[in-house]
Design goal:
This protein is of the alpha+beta class. It contains 5 helices and 14 strands. The longest helix is centred in the first third of the chain and has 13 residues. The radius of gyration is 20 Å and the shape is globular.
Length: 222
């Protein structure tokens, strides 16, 4: 077993995240040994990849790259522990329609509870919520295909004003076009997680959002 410094571990994970799309494309269904700025070894055998990486005498972390079935995956699954009822990390989010929307929808607002999901790259809203916000699919607009638990999911990307804990900003959302009854509202990482420090206090079933955009950051809990 190799040894790494905490700083090396942080650097490797950062590089891995920055290059995740390239790695998913180039190393599907392979083990990879991630170095600080490169893949040190790759292949189908964990032992062989690890041995090759060890021979370089450089710090690394082993990782598995699954098969990429689509550009974006939407997996919403509840995990239950010993308690009969699961705690969902919910937080109130306010959507405000901008000036580019049809006149009848401008300045319309909808506040909803969303699941704060660190595993989701982008925020996700249901078909019905998007329609209430005045979203529509333009003629000839490209419809993206994502992978969900039950199969392919059609969606389009939208930018909308979002307010969390009294702070307003623009962020992308994936608007699902399928009529899926159990579509959750997911608050994903893109933009949101760059603007806030988010703390999950599961023992007390609450979440804290601390704004990073100003020196006197606002803090709210729910």
């Amino acid at each position: 077993m190799q040894s790494r410094t905490p700083e090396e571990t942080i650097a490797i994970i950062k590089w891995r995240n920055q290059n995740r799309r390239t790695l998913r494309s180039n190393y599907q269904q392979q083990y990879i040994a991630c170095g600080i700025s490169e893949v040190l070894a790759a292949g189908g055998s964990y032992d062989r990849v690890e041995a090759a990486a060890m021979a370089t005498k450089k710090p690394f972390i082993m990782d598995w790259i699954p098969e990429a079935v689509s550009t974006v995956n939407f997996y919403w699954v509840k995990f239950y522990g010993l308690k009969k009822e699961a705690w969902e990390p919910l937080y109130p989010v306010l959507f405000t329609v901008g000036e580019t929307a049809p006149v009848e929808y401008r300045s319309k607002q909808r506040e909803v509870l969303m699941v704060v999901d660190s595993g989701a790259e982008v925020s996700l809203i249901s078909k019905i919520l998007g329609e209430e916000l005045g979203f529509s699919v333009a003629y000839g607009e490209k419809i993206e295909i994502g992978q969900g638990v039950g199969g392919d999911i059609e969606y389009v990307n939208r930018i909308i004003d979002i307010s969390i804990a009294g702070n307003t900003f623009k962020a992308p959302v994936a608007w699902i076009l399928n009529d899926i009854g159990d579509t959750p509202l997911l608050l994903g990482r893109e933009v949101v997680f760059d603007l806030f420090d988010i703390k999950f206090v599961q023992a007390e079933e609450r979440i804290e959002f601390e704004w990073r955009g100003t020196a006197d950051a606002n803090k709210a809990t729910a």
